[in-house]
Specification:
globular, 5-stranded mixed beta sheet
Length: 207
């Protein structure tokens, strides 16, 4: 029977749910020196075999040797590009640490009870607004994280999609990276604990 290992790629590290319980533990690759405005996992490409080996050993230590029965359910930053998604998928699939990989944007994981909502997050590069409808990213808007106008983002959140201009939907502020102080008044703040609690049990069919 295929089982799921929930994971999340934050701005600084990779968090993996422990096998027993709902705690998440960090995988940090030694010798990685992140650059400003560049996701840290880009550095994995320079030492890909070594990074894959270390990740597999990390997973084996927690989940045992029979890794081919697992699917890695990976929650990724909201501004992850199509090429980055391909790299993330290939990196983990070819690490030997799983049977398959499923990816989902962070914004899609912020609520299990609302079918429509706005998410706002901040990555290494961007502030990201997203309209989530039935678990799909219907529309998104990016703002350079080194040069953005908070008031403009507040206004844009009200009219990100025609569906919400007159009816309104909940707004969730994703504070997994502890960097959303500018946006606490925009909506319900999802703390790191709240976020990890939400993804501790993931339905892979929705990814």
């Amino acid at each position: 029977m295929t089982k799921t290992i929930p994971m999340v790629i934050t701005n600084d590290t990779i968090l993996v749910k422990e096998k027993e319980g709902d705690r998440f533990i960090a995988f940090n690759m030694p010798g990685i020196s992140p650059e400003v405005n560049i996701p840290f996992y880009h550095e994995f490409a320079k030492r890909i075999a070594e990074c894959q080996y270390n990740f597999k050993e990390f997973i084996k230590k927690e989940y045992g040797k029979k890794l081919t029965k697992y699917i890695l359910a990976i929650i990724i930053p909201d501004d992850t590009s199509a090429l980055e998604r391909i790299f993330i998928n290939e990196f983990f699939v070819n690490s030997g640490a799983c049977k398959a990989v499923a990816l989902m944007n962070m914004g899609q994981a912020l609520s299990k009870t609302h079918t429509k909502y706005i998410s706002v997050s901040k990555t290494k590069r961007n502030v990201v607004l997203q309209y989530i409808n039935n678990n799909e990213v219907t529309v998104s808007k990016l703002y350079d994280c080194s040069n953005y106008n908070v008031k403009q983002i507040y206004e844009d959140a009200k009219r990100l999609h025609i569906d919400i201009e007159y009816t309104g939907v909940p707004v969730f502020v994703n504070n997994i990276n502890m960097n959303m102080d500018d946006f606490f008044e925009l909506g319900e703040v999802i703390s790191p604990k709240d976020f990890l609690d939400k993804i501790a049990a993931i339905d892979v069919e929705k990814l």
